[in-house]
Amino acid sequence: MVNVTILGAGTWGMGIAILLNNNGHSVTVWSAVPAEVEMLQKNHEHNNLPGVPISENIKIMADLEEAVKGADLIVMAVASVFTRRTSKLVSPYIPEGQIIVNVAKGIEEETLAVLTQQISEEIPQAEVAVLSGPSHAEEVSRGIHTSVVIGAEIKATAEWLQNIFMSPVFRVYTSPDVLGIELGGALKNVIALAAGTADGLGYGDNTKAALITRGMAEISRLGLAMGAKAETLYGLSGIGDLIVTCASMHSRNRRAGILLGKGYTMEEAMKEVKMVVEGVYSAKAAKALADRYHVNMPIVEEMNKVLFENKSASEAVGNLMLRDKTTENTALPWEK
Question: Considering the entire predicted model, what is its pTM?
Fold first, then answer.
């Protein structure tokens, strides 16, 4: 048994809390939202996870210093837009060598830093790892079989985390490619917005399959240019997470995309979904990274225009279909 503190009491934070409590660990959850703390303490259920009981053994706290005191492991589960702010707040209470595992997904718009980089910058005394993969909180909290990957620079750390998270219904792989895991998890949200937009426009399975496949090509081009490994991008945190996020109604990014396809503005779609839509925040960063590394990402480019320039979704899809003719993979040579 280890003492685990989870920072963030959203659906994913609580899904992780339930998983680790069921694994026999001592779990504390911190939230910066007093109403959320009160709700969880009183109802032992999260409003966005109806019918999923939260054990009374899981402690819910509003005091950050108290919550992290004596923690063997800290899980950073706040929405990506709050990662740096939360890291800065908690840094004074973090001892040298503290292991922190990030489970959120995103890229900071201003700095283009992935989340583990942000945490390391604000908490330099910590050792930072990442957990990612196709893992909707709605299913993990209910014990539905799930597989993920944990990335860490030190193999022993990844294996220690693997032992903590692994269960009969939660299979955990390890990897040294932290950057690749982070990029796959963040960039797939932008592609999921596009897939949802196609659904909202009433397009079919052919369209979605094309967006997923070509979206994976865009993610891979950028990831490889930045130093990620192809094996990671075609693994659980890349194509695995991309498939589930583009296909599932649990995905807030897909749901927001559906609304965009139906004519909602970005602000209206986010308000309707009622949760943080990570792909909206990662879209500008993805476009900026594509420009920095001179990588062609037409789906990302068109989604930015839909989100921030009021371009119609149908026009964006039309532009994608009518781009200049090209080969599918320029790395494959012609023999004749």
Answer: 0.93
